[in-house]
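User: Predict the structure for this protein chain, please.
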Amino acid sequence: MTFFKFKARLYPLVAVAASLFVIVFGLVAAREANMSYYLLGVLAWVSLFGCVKSCLKLLPAFVVFGGAFAGIAYASAGGDVEAAISMLNRFGALFLGVALSMSVEAVRMTRALSQVRTPRALTLGMLIAMSFVPMLKGEIGRVREAMKTRGAGSVLDPKIFYRAFLVPFVMRLVNISDTLALSVETRGFTLGGGLYSIYKKEYPALSDVLFVIGLAVGAALTVVL
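Assistant: Here is the predicted structure, written as structure tokens:
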């Protein structure tokens, strides 16, 4: 019965596979006349399936880097608008693919990988990799707040950057790595072939099938029309 339910969140493995498809198709078919419309459609499609927050987080980066490289492509091609649009399409596909991957929670991805009996080393590596960027962002914010509290000055000063920011930041990362290793061990993560159970399982649903069909149909129409 789970398969026939419509879920707002995508099945983790479907989201990752769709992410790779959007990136590869966007890079290969960037010069297609309808590619920009396809990417706009994908943006609306992924937003419908619970990826709005991740898209909004990456939108400023897309505007800055996509716009900059599109301008470079326009200038280097002698004012060719199609070259600039193609470059924007490539960055748009990359932006949407990364947004799709970011919409998956690390714990849900770990459950899905464990259900399909992925090697524990790969599952653990994926869990740490997906949790690293948010953790890194949080630690940078804490160190900056500590600098403001102590009146350390501007982080642009090389001496202040090294003593007040870089050294505390590295020390916090070392402490976090030790805590993470202990946490993984106490929660029963082993790299051997020991038995394990999954408390809450992840299953694909009808919404995942509809999502994949929508991406595939849009890609086919982009190439054919």
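The helical segments are 12-28, 35-48, 52-76, 81-102, 106-115, 120-150, 158-186, 206-224.
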